Automatic annotation (TrEMBL):
Superkingdom of this protein's organism: Bacteria
Pfam families registered for this protein in UniProt: DUF6551
Organism name: Sphingobium rhizovicinum
UniProt-annotated stretches for the region Disordered: 35-62
Protein name stated in the entry: DUF6551 family protein
Compositionally biased residues, Basic and acidic residues: 49-59
Length: 299
């Protein structure tokens, strides 16, 4: 049996969406002279047929790859008008319409064949070069959602996998972090929700729960500097343990070092994810072999 300290586990709390009361906000006008002159002319917002819209291969990314084809099919299969943001479109001198941003939505609409129009923000650009410059600027300015923001949003939406991952974390006595930067982590927080979800999908909740509980008991009050790697290493040991593997003996070996010390064994690992987990698994097994069996220790 795994050594587990006595005590009660926290009761997981089902996420509840909190809707703030709408309070009108008065925005004070600022003198225009403090701001640079706005560029370009205001665009028009129009609904246009997908068959009217064209793509310029000179600056658009290729969709002739597995990832893009899968994305287009996913958008087409789960088409939701509430997620169809306006496409950014350039109107050229001859009146033709060229998509700067939104080519996957366009491809999905064309694939379906039953989407009569797409909302478009149509502007006039000076040249193809100007369109390409806008394409680059828009993609560089776009801030992707980080994995923890994505997880918390999924949790709030009632996503079943996110709820199960959150329950595994809270049942072990941890909380889910809101910050991805390791410098901002505090003790008792878990940021490696993606690693837990991956193991959960492939090996089930028992393996995840054992690894998380072991970490909670071995490193109380510590920041999980090597949290993801330690979790993966422990789950890999549970999935394919060596002959005669003793969880209690492994637990005693874990207690010999703190999280920061275990993390130091990963300083030279170039890869991430599974490679770091495999490396730490090797280190844990070496520590396990050095740890005497209970009978030897008592003798």
């Amino acid at each position: 049996m795994m050594l587990v300290r006595s005590g009660t586990k926290p009761t997981p709390v089902t996420p509840v969406a909190v809707v703030a009361e709408h309070v009108p906000v008065k925005i004070a006008a600022r003198p225009a002279k403090k701001w640079p002159v706005a560029k370009g002319n205001p665009p028009s917002v129009e609904n246009r047929s997908p068959t009217e819209l064209r793509l310029d291969d000179s600056y658009q990314r290729s969709t002739d790859n597995g990832a893009s084809r899968a994305l287009i099919k996913r958008i087409a299969t789960g088409w939701d008008w509430r997620m169809c943001l306006p496409l950014v479109v350039s109107k050229r001198d001859d009146g033709s319409l060229w998509v700067i941003d939104g080519q996957h939505r366009l491809a999905a609409a064309l694939l379906r064949g039953d989407i009569p129009f797409l909302p478009c923000v149509i502007g006039v650009y000076g040249s193809v070069a100007d369109e390409a410059a806008m394409f680059v600027a828009m993609n560089r300015a776009r801030k992707p959602m980080n994995r923890l923001d994505d997880f918390h949003a999924a949790l709030a939406s009632g996503d079943s996998e996110a709820i199960e991952v959150a329950k595994l974390i809270t049942d072990a006595g941890f909380t889910v972090s809101r910050k991805t930067g390791s410098q901002s982590w505090v003790s008792g927080e878990v940021a490696f929700t993606s690693a837990i979800a991956k193991v959960l999908r492939k090996h089930g909740p028992t393996v995840c729960a054992l690894a998380l509980t072991t970490m909670a008991e071995a490193f109380p009050g510590e920041v999980l500097n090597a949290g993801s790697s330690m979790f993966l290493a422990l789950t890999k040991l549970s999935i394919s343990p060596p002959d005669g593997f003793d969880h209690d003996r492994m637990f005693r070996a874990l207690l010999k070092r703190n999280q920061r010390e275990w993390a130091s064994f990963l300083n030279e690992v170039k890869g991430g994810g599974d490679e770091r987990g495999l490396q730490l698994r090797k280190v844990l097994l070496m520590a396990y072999e050095e740890e005497p069996e209970v009978a030897d220790a008592e003798g």
